[in-house]
Amino acid sequence: MDAVRRDRIPRLARGHDNATGLMDTHGLRELYDLVLRLSAVHDLDALVQEVVDHARRLLGVDVAYLALAEPDGSLVIRVTDGSLGPRLRGVVLPPHSGLAGRVADTGEPVQSADYLGDAALTHLGDVDRVAEDEGLRTILGVPLRLRGKVAGVLMVSQRAVRRFTAAESSLLTSLGSFAAIAIENAKLVTALGAANDRLERAVRLHDRLLAVALHGGAAEDVVVPLSELVPGLVVVADEHDEVRAAARDGVPVDAVLDGTPSAWFADPAARRTHVGDKTITVPVASANAYFGALQVVLAAPLDDAEVRLLERAAMTVALVASVERAVTDAERRTAGELLEQLVTRRVRDEPAFTRRARSLGLDLRRPHLAVVTPDLEALPRLRELAARHGGLVTTVDGQAVGVLRADEATVRAAELGTTGLAGPATGASALADAYDDASACVRVLEALGRTGSTATPDDLGPYRYLLGQAGRDDASAFVGRTLAPLLAHDEDRGTDLVRTAEVFLRCGRRKSAAAEALTIHPNTLYQRLDRITALLGEDWQDGDRALDVQLALRLHRLRRELS
């Protein structure tokens, strides 16, 4: 590709993460802007030409072309960009034939590295001769899906062998999905004509809703203009039937849902417009996910055009929600990988790492708390804290981990379950140390039976010495000085005098309670206590000596559980 041609390819075509195969967030935002421009084109011929022109530029390919489905199942190539002559335009692809037929049959992207030599595809002589005249080798085709059906196929081709990446396939698929909606809108405008003012306003409203969704508008920005056109109360709810916004006659109002759409639409096969006596409810869903519902509590019957408007609005919101969820997941994975690299001390180039962290919202120059909890149900609350105060959240070794700008009181108030806190700390190395301390706090809390509690190292009293190697060495020396004869006896003879002594002291030296806790006969307990007294001395149960023995016994147990 010459330099001029490469410069014409937008950044979007090159904005991929080669390590993960994911489009970057900036690239997806550029796709949004492109889709918004397409949605404003209502002339069908001009629209499909725009689609193939953009497809060719986005992926930097030799040829792009688009085929629309006919009622008999065939596909007709309507427009091309980059072809050597007119023969490609107008080619009819019979059902189930060629690469386009495979895309139409499966509804999934299909790629062939060498089309003419691909024995896995059903070839037709006339079509292959056109491909040979054009010199087409590698072809990637994606579906134009609409309401679960394939309305056409968007294809790009290279005259040399090329392997399209998963990110490029995903990019072209996203463009095809948006193009399907834009084509449907253009067909609707063509069919109804510009003379129908009400439907023309509906089309303009649809464009407005798409613009709102693409630019991150709130739910109110959807229902308020929609309620100006649709007679009745318009409500948008999420997948849990929580009302996000409601409006009537263009004015926001408080409202509740009529019924439980999440139950109605739980089965993907049942995700179609639900008509009740007083309501019309449309699922906001993609092929694989349910995002919520759009409901109208009717003030007057809706005609077919108004119902179709609701369905198109719900479909557009669902498509954008799906793409935005993919963006969020990609950002979350990237942030999670960075945070895991930080806490597991795999930072090799700290200045570069610091710059990358800052781009994801983690400024290592500022103090952050390290937060660790084994309760994964706390992840949403941790993410809320990160969104509100700054920081990153991920999972490491099966635990929820956050590095947050929030203060200690705020984190405690979030009630995250058994939680270790450490810091605040600044810089990669100090934050890794804080993570180690917070993780150790969790282990100590669990070993002490204080599940559900939140603790910093300072909250652990004498047990905080188990968090560092020097402290563990000191604790080991103290345990050895205090319990050496008892430990040696258990080691040499396989007895359990250490646990017996700990349980006895924990039960307040009440023999019956200790025997029950140990599930042994009282006489057995008496014999063990006599043996312990012989090993530790007569005063092991009394005064300061009893405190030393009890502390040493607990430190010994915690040492083993934390090792």
TrEMBL record:
Q: Where is the GAF domain?
A: 43-193
Q: Which InterPro entries match?
A: CdaR-like_regulators, CdaR_GGDEF, GAF, GAF-like_dom_sf, PucR_C-HTH_dom, PucR_C-HTH_sf
Q: What family does this belong to? A: Belongs to the CdaR family.
- Spell out the protein name for this chain: GAF domain-containing protein
Organism source for this protein?
Amycolatopsis nalaikhensis
